[in-house]
Design a protein that fits this description.
8-stranded parallel beta barrel; 714 residues; Alpha-d-glucuronidase, C-terminal Domain; alpha/beta; EC 3.2.1.131; carbohydrate metabolism; 3 domains; hydrolase; single chain; Xylan alpha-1,2-glucuronidase; 6-stranded mixed sheet; TIM Barrel; globular; hydrolase activity; 16 strands; 37% helix; binds beta-D-glucopyranuronic acid; Chitobiase, domain 2
Length: 714
Amino acid sequence: MIARLLCWMIALTAASWAPGALAEDGYDLWLRYARTDEARSADLAAHATIIVAPGASPTLNVAIAELQRGLAGMTGVAPALSGTMRQGALWLATPASAPALPGETAGLGGEGYAIRSIEVDGKAVTLIAANSDLGLLHGACHWLRLAQSGASLDRLDIRSAPKIRLRLLNHWDNLNGTVERGYAGQSIWDWWRLPDWKAPRYTDYARANAAIGINGTVLNNVNAKADSLTAPYIAKAAALADLFRPYGIKVYLSVRWTAPMELDGLRTADPRDPAVAGWWRAKADEIYRAIPDFGGFLVKANSEGQPGPQDYKRTHADGANMLAAALKPHGGIVMWRAFVYAHDNPDDRAKQAYADFRPLDGQFADNVIVQVKNGAIDFQPREPFHPLFGAMPKTPLMMEFQITKEYLGQSTHLTYLGPLFKEALDSDTFAKGAGSTVAKVIDGSLDGHRLTGIAGVANIGADRDWSGSIFNQADWYAFGRLAWDTSLSAEAIAREWAAMTFSPDPKVVEPIVGMMMGSREAAVDYMTPLGLAHMMDTGHHYGPGPWVSDLARPEWNPVYYHRADADGIGFDRTDSGSGAIGQYAPAIATRLANPHTTPERHLLWFHHLPWDYRLASGETLWDGLVRRYDRGPAYVAGMQTLWASLKPHIDARRFAQTEAFLTIQHREALWWRDASIAYFQSLAHRPLPAGSPAPAHDLNWYKTQRFPYAPGHS
Ligand code: BDP
């Protein structure tokens, strides 16, 4: 018996040291701190003393721990803590710990930092200065980012402070462990075993988010269950809040409008009813007793069947303000979503949020912020910016991006979202003349708002690599980096991420950045070129379904969006159509009224055009459409070739995952192309342009594909 046990032990020991047992699995995200070469190691080791004042706070402790972990990982030697200056040291200081700090921290606010190479007592040191320990944590993370990505650590002179106050993840996680539109496994929150079992992963989640400046997290799905407001679930949220607090991350909850009726039998959820307002006040008091720094509520009301104040003939403002009053004494806020469209409203879906919300401008309480998706429909591969941006100057508007790729290839397609986020942020609303960008609307500078925010629907799940694929991590990373600083370029962010995720070697970074930068455009090409939208199949939104026309509500059907027939294709949003163009500022509307002055990337979003309409290239709309459908899979094939060339430089496990996923992506890109062309050709009755291959199957084959178990649809 003992001999057998010994055999097992030997076998197990051998297995755990077998090659590959320590393979990279993506868990470490941008906090890998991989061992550097000797020269760089020596460079980094010169900084192996951390100077801090005694009596560190929990936040300063996590900053120190991160620096120690990072330096130990990169150099093999754990840095020492010291109270006195040493050559090369990293000096972490706030005005409270170092009163002589000469004006270093002015203008950095509560979260910003400065990193400067200075001399103190004849010794060269790197000063990380901030007004708070949280600023020091962010500064330490910035320094570690430089260290990991091979950047020079000399002559540093960096100042950085976020312009946007709330930088939040929105988890669409359900209490039963599923995730709506989640493609990375079950929910990261083990609601059942919380609050007793606090998985170590929660702390790593906080580290990863703090490193990119995320400062809040909405824990549950916007399609909320009232149960998340019961005492046991408040205690679970409180346990997470306790873990996240040292990292400067606040917890928020999505709330269900009818919670007072469902949980406590109130006869109404009318926001003007004193009993309803009283219920929410008491609920807010209860939450703040458990979570003193609770952030506030996120609300999806009167949208896609969710209840809301309109059920009682009240407005969104009435509803938001009632909740805001309950949170106000505690300093909490309400994020009220503008993602609304009603089953009994026959108007163009793209117009409905504007129609509902714009008249309410100026009516929201000062602790309400209206959360608007980047486009007017729904997180499509490409949408023009939402016309509400720039149209509600008296109301703070918060951006909502979708990091999880519901409409961009879900778990397996490599479609880097940095360029999509940037395109939206850089869009010019012309609200106050040229230069009134969406970024300036949401950072408050255009209209002088102090309550400002940006949210990303998280792509995080229980998968070991957090996001379902290594490359999906880049979207989480890019969201955080842009939330902190909207002026960063998508390419610079991709470069940082690739260096930290794989290697700072340009032989690795450059091809990877090359792959990433065109990848979202490629998805637009094979899914929804030239301004098409919502071509996805029913329910799961996985794969093409441009023919779908049998769903209960018109705007759930792809045919509603493309309106293709024998004569042409596209949604007429000019004055002769739905008139949606009129929701934009006149400078934009005038350009969009004419197809020839409409950017081709949005052409069919705004215009219904004949198949023989001439594009700028001189080719017909039909030929141009097909050419784009061809271009998408070709780009993916190019990514496959580039990735294959990287094999000698990438660890086996992560190489294999990406290789397999690119194979899936290529197959599915062809499927998208073929199905879309087969369908549109059945209407347009035109031959494919020379060199463009016929679809692999007939239209009926594509129509009969079924995917009842596609993930993400809860
Ligand atoms: C859509 C999703 C749906 C969400 C909705 C929302 O398909 O699952 O509930 O957005 O944002 O994109 O509320």
